[in-house]
Design brief:
single chain, Metallo-beta-lactamase, Chain A, Rossmann fold, 21% strand, binds zinc ion
C-alpha cells in the first residue's frame, strides 16, 4: 500500500491524501491551499494524476482547506462517489458555491481562467453521498469505512478505513476539536489503527480555558463599546466559529455581562451556515442545542441582524459605535470583513478580535503578528485599533486535546504521520508524541510517498 501526501504535509492547508492499494486508489479530502500567491500556484498544479482512476473520495469536513478542490477534481474527470456526513453535504452546497464565486471574481479581476466555475461547483455536489456517524459503509468492494464525530465543526469527522485486501486499517483524524467547547460535541476516540494520520495545527501550544477565553471576549467588547465608544470587528470563520461566537454572545448578554450592543453577522456565507447549523441542531452538544436554537429563532436580546445585500453591508461603515460586527472569510483575505477592517483599523476606539488560525501570508496573520500598517484593497491602512487574538476559541484541539484523543488508542499504531501543521509545529508535536506516548511518529513532506 502506498500513501501520497498531496497537501497538509508541513503546512496546514490543502489537505489531500492519495491512498493506493495496488488494486484500488482513493482520496481522503481534496482541499484547497490557502494563503498568498504560492497557494494559488499550488492549487492550479494540484491533482496532477489520472483522477478518473480514483474509486471514491472520503471527506472529513466542509472547510475549504479540506474540500475546496472537489469541483476541480470532478471537472478533471473524477465521477465516483464522495462520502461525507449529511451536515457536511449541506454545508458544502453553501461553501463550494461561495468558493466558486470567489474564484470567478478573482479570475475576472486578474484576467485569467478561474480555478473552477459556479457551474462546475454545483455539478460536483451531485457526487456527494451522505452517511451517518458511526455507521459502517462500504465505499467499494473490499473496503469498509466509518465516520466518527471529530468535534471540530458541524458534520466534521475522523475516518476509519478497513482495507481488506491490504489487510490494513487506517485512521485519519481530520481536524479535531477541543473537548469541552460550546456547540459541538467532544471528539470520538478511535481505538486502533495500522496507519494513523493526525492533525497538529496547535500541537505546540495550550489554549486558554474556555472561561478565560469568554472573559477575554467579554472584556474586549465591554471596554470597546462602553468605555471607548467604538466598534468591535470579529473575524471568525463563517462556518463553526461564527455560530459559536453567537452562542457565547447570547449567553453573555442573557447573563447581563455585556453593555447595550447590536450584533451584525455580515457574511452571506455565515448566514447560510447558521441556517444549516439550525437544521442539524440535533448533532450539536445536547446541553446547549436547545438554547442556541431557541435564541436564534427568537427576536429579543441581544439583537442579532444578518445583513443581506451589499448595500446593507456598506451601510455598516456609517455605524461609529455600539456594533459588534462578525464577518467571515477565510483569514481576512476576502469577503466583507475587509471593508470593516479598512473602516475600523485606523480608529483607536475600535477593536478587532481575531478568532481562529491565520496562515502565513494572510492579512489576518499580519494583524496577529502586530503589523503597524497593512494593505487593504491596495491602500496602506494604519493599525490603531486594539487587535485581540483569542486563540482559546479555536476549532482545533491544542497539544493536550490532541494527546488525549491519541490516548484513546489501545496500542501504538503501526505508523503515525503527523500532518496538518506548519513544519516546525508538526515536528514539535511529533517529539511530544514520542516523549509522552512512546510511539514512533513521522512528519511527511508535501508530495512525499510512503510505502507500507
Ligand atoms: Zn477544519
Amino acid at each position: 500500500m502506498r500513501i501520497r501526501f498531496l497537501g497538509a504535509a508541513g503546512e496546514v492547508t490543502g489537505s489531500c491524501f492519495l491512498i493506493d492499494t495496488g488494486g484500488l486508489s482513493f482520496l481522503v479530502d481534496c482541499g484547497m491551499f490557502q494563503g498568498g500567491r504560492e497557494a494559488s500556484i499550488k492549487n492550479r498544479a494540484a491533482l496532477d494524476f489520472d483522477v478518473s482512476k480514483l474509486a471514491f473520495v472520503l471527506l472529513t469536513h466542509a472547510h475549504i482547506d479540506h474540500s475546496g478542490l472537489i469541483p476541480r477534481l470532478v471537472h478533471k474527470g473524477f465521477d465516483g462517489p464522495i462520502f461525507c456526513t449529511s451536515a457536511t453535504a449541506d454545508l458544502l452546497e453553501v461553501m463550494l458555491a461561495d468558493s466558486a464565486n470567489i474564484q470567478e471574481k478573482d479570475a475576472e479581476r486578474e484576467d485569467r481562467k478561474p480555478l473552477y466555475t459556479l457551474t462546475q461547483a454545483l455539478r460536483s455536489l451531485r457526487q456527494l453521498r451522505a452517511v451517518s456517524y458511526d455507521e459502517m459503509f462500504s465505499p467499494a468492494a473490499g473496503v469498509r469505512a466509518c465516520l466518527r464525530d471529530a468535534g471540530h465543526i458541524l458534520g466534521s469527522a475522523a475516518i476509519e478505513v478497513w482495507l481488506d485486501d491490504a489487510g490494513k486499517k487506517l485512521a485519519l483524524s481530520g481536524d479535531l476539536g477541543q473537548p469541552g467547547r460550546p456547540l459541538v460535541r467532544d471528539p470520538t476516540p478511535i481505538e486502533e489503527a495500522d496507519v494513523l494520520m493526525v492533525e497538529s495545527t496547535y500541537g505546540n501550544r495550550l489554549h486558554k480555558t474556555l472561561n478565560a477565553t469568554v472573559d477575554e471576549l467579554c472584556q474586549a467588547i465591554t471596554v470597546t463599546l462602553a468605555d471607548r465608544r467604538g466598534n468591535v470587528v470579529i473575524q471568525a470563520f463563517a462556518v463553526g466559529r461564527t455560530q459559536e461566537v453567537l452562542y457565547l454572545l447570547i449567553r453573555l448578554a442573557q447573563a447581563g455581562r455585556l453593555p447595550q450592543l447590536d450584533i451584525y453577522v455580515d457574511s452571506p456565507l455565515a448566514t447560510k451556515a447558521t441556517a444549516v447549523t439550525l437544521k442539524h441542531w440535533r448533532l450539536l452538544d445536547p446541553d446547549v442545542a436547545p438554547t442556541f436554537a431557541s435564541a436564534m429563532q427568537a427576536h429579543g436580546k441581544p439583537s442579532i441582524r444578518f445583513t443581506e445585500s451589499p448595500e446593507e453591508s456598506a451601510a455598516l461603515s456609517r455605524v461609529r459605535d455600539g456594533a459588534v460586527i462578525i464577518a467571515g472569510s477565510g483569514m481576512c483575505d476576502g469577503g466583507r470583513v475587509q471593508y470593516h477592517l479598512r473602516d475600523n483599523l485606523p480608529r483607536s476606539e475600535s477593536s478587532v478580535v481575531i478568532i481562529g488560525f491565520q496562515a502565513q501570508g494572510t492579512l489576518g496573520r499580519r494583524l496577529v503578528d502586530g503589523a503597524a500598517q497593512v494593505r487593504i484593497f491596495g491602500d496602506e491602512v494604519d493599525v490603531r485599533a486594539t487587535v485581540h487574538t483569542i486563540g482559546g476559541l479555536s476549532a482545533h484541539a491544542d497539544r493536550s486535546g490532541l494527546l488525549s484523543w491519541l490516548r484513546g488508542f489501545r496500542r501504538a499504531p503501526g505508523r503515525t504521520y503527523v500532518v496538518h501543521g506548519e513544519y516546525e509545529t508538526a515536528r514539535t508535536f511529533c517529539a511530544v508524541i514520542e516523549r509522552e506516548l512512546g510511539w514512533h511518529a513521522e512528519t511527511p513532506a508535501g508530495g512525499q510517498v510512503v510505502e507500507i
